[in-house]
Amino acid sequence: MITLSHEDHIANVSRQVRQLRAVVTSGADLAAGVPTCPDWTLEDLVRHIGGALRWAALLVARRATAELPEEEVLLFGGPGARGDAAALDAWLEESGRLLVEALSGAAPDTPVWSWFEERTAGFWARRMSNELAVHRADAALAAGQPYEVAPEMAADTIEEWLRIVRFAQRDPDDQAGADLRLGGRTLHLHATDAPAGLDAEWLVELADEGVRWSRRHGRADVALRGPLTEVMLAFQRRTRPDAGSLEVLGDRALLDFWLARTKWG
């Protein structure tokens, strides 16, 4: 199985910031709506991403032991003038550089506060790499541009998302998480184009004690099958499960049930 190191995640942050900057400076309409984040324009999305990069950078740089308020993050909300692609690009470049520098100066097991069960610099490297992977897709959709992501990153985004869903289920007040305790109903994610050694299949069990999964082929109540990037985007609610080259085999209602209950916020 291909796994990504701390250094891989840092390199991915740097690479994806460059890719997102290319969208900002491409002439795309910064006031265009984001189909997958309907309350945001493309500029709102970029400001959200850059602010998150700066917040994570400050957490890691300070070796924070508690959550830091946004007010302590310099230029958290972005440059003052709206609609200025050059200023937004420069701010985003600096946001990415601050995070890369902070992460590069910390071992992956360096203690750093997080909202997750893993409170390390390594968590933030992986989280921000995958945050960028998903939000770059949002930006590409808003700009009407193609989207590409490395296979190992797409797979890591799926794997991390499953961990986040399982973590969220531990909250006794999370009704959506409780709804996913379905006595062992199963979903299968099957990437049809994964390179050798990646193991880009997941058998996901909606067990009564919480979601669990293994990286293997297997029969399930419903399967989502297709190219890895498309599987990742559908699993992250960025495209429809039947869009593009994707196929849904079996109980489509179960897949829709999962997707409706696994989302941020």
From TrEMBL:
Region forming the signal peptide: none
All residue ranges annotated as the MDMPI C-terminal domain in the record: 153-256
Superkingdom of origin: Bacteria
Domain Mycothiol-dependent maleylpyruvate isomerase metal-binding: 14-140
GO molecular function terms listed in the Swiss-Prot or TrEMBL record: isomerase activity
Keywords: Isomerase
UniProt KW Isomerase keyword: yes
Pfam families xref list: MDMPI_C, MDMPI_N
Xref: PANTHER family: CONSERVED PROTEIN
Protein name: Maleylpyruvate isomerase family mycothiol-dependent enzyme
Annotated organism of origin: Streptomyces fragilis
